[in-house]
Amino acid sequence: MNQNHVVFRSCAVLFAMMVLVAGNITSAQAQPPQGEKSLYERLGGVYSIATVVDDFIERLLANDILNANPAIKEARDRVPKAGLKFRVTELVCQGTGGPEQYHGRTMKEAHKHLYITEKEWDAMVADFKKTLDKFKVPDSEQKELFAIVGSTKPDIVISSTTPKMQ
Ligand code: HEM
Is the pTM for the entire model greater than 0.90? Predict the structure, then answer.
């Protein structure tokens, strides 16, 4: 397995971690059956995961659809991107069975003030796909990752009846 492949597999781990943490799944629950490597190990550990998170967050920060939302734009300008990458990396590492612990907010708490819409969610998913493709994550693992990320959607996307910030 070459370096790029390990990094791309880490991409999947990252998203899995975020989703698992968002769903209050503990690192113990992320442990694989006896004799099998954890997802964290298969992805190449924290350095590989951090590399994938870095690529993904950079895409999101430059996404015009996301930045058209004033609440997202405000947070983008206010929150140091190195800290956001750190928190997301923590989340992915914990959720995939690594030794790192996530110390951030729940997905609901972290995103409720951003008023994220379906359209913005879809833009995020498209960027995630680009990162996974860049690192050549296999289709089967991409499907698993998208399923995991999708499980956080109810905590992140506003309902159509929620008033949007002007
Ligand atoms: C359209 C989708 C998303 C957008 C636009 C978005 C944007 C943001 C922004 C701007 C912040 C910083 C908020 C602040 O501190 O005021 C944040 C925090 C965070 N997001 Fe997202 N996010 C999205 C989806 C996700 C998903 C799917 C996950 C994980 C599965 C995730 C994980 C996190 C984490 C771990 C933090 C840090 C929480 C903390 O520091 O306590 N985000 N997000």
Answer: no
Cβ atoms < 10 Å from Cβ of 89: 26
Q: Residues 3-156: name the CATH superfamily.
A: Globins (1.10.490.10)
- 59-106: per-residue pLDDT in tens? 999 999 999 999 999 999 999 999 999 999 898 777 777 899 999 999
For ligand 1, whether the C-beta of 66 sits within 6 Å is yes
Which residue shows structure tokens 């750190």? 86
* Cα angle value 17/23/24 (rounded, 5°): 90
User: Does 75 sit in the ligand 1 pocket, CB within 6 Å?
Assistant: yes
Opening angle at CA 104, ends 57 and 102, nearest 5: 90
Residue ranges of domains in the chain: 3-156
